[in-house]
Amino acid sequence: MTPVTPVVRVAEGEEDLALVHGVRREVFIVEQQIPEDEEWDELDATSEHLLAIGADGTALGTARLIHGEQALRITGGLPGRVLLGRLAVLKAARGTGLGAVLVRAVEAAGRARGATELELHAQVQALGFYERLGYTAEGPEYLDAGIPHRTMTRVL
């Protein structure tokens, strides 16, 4: 596939959040059959959502940055650590480098908030993708929404 040069921006307002939710619905609920009540959580309200928009104005992908008190709670109080979550790229844009663009955008947003480390909870099938971006797996494999995951981290 040809590389995608999308505009990646922080989702602002209801229209952008509807696009974020549309991408996540397609990838997680429809494709991966994750139950809807497991996809939407309390972290959505306090996270920074990034949205990738193609040249034609359509949403292609999204990711969220979990920071502040929520990040401290999830990481067990590790200062300087933020989390990348809900990375989703629509099928039509996969293999174009968009996933890496979104990861780097979340890293930059984390650095802008003073973060020194980023944590993510990767589906096991995506470990190689994150390893190529400099992430290291930690701890044992575990199930999240019935899908095997590993925690991964990277110093920013």
Automatic annotation (TrEMBL):
GO molecular function: acyltransferase activity
Name of this protein: GNAT family N-acetyltransferase
Keywords annotated in UniProt: Acyltransferase, Transferase
Cited Gene3D superfamilies: 3.40.630.30
Domain of life: Bacteria
InterPro entries: Acyl_CoA_acyltransferase, Bact_Acetyltransf, GNAT_dom
Native source species: Kitasatospora herbaricolor
Residue ranges of the TM segments: none
EC number(s) from the headed UniProt entry: 2.3.1.-
Location of the N-acetyltransferase domain: 6-156
Any single Pfam family the record assigns to this protein: Acetyltransf_10
Coiled-coil zones: none
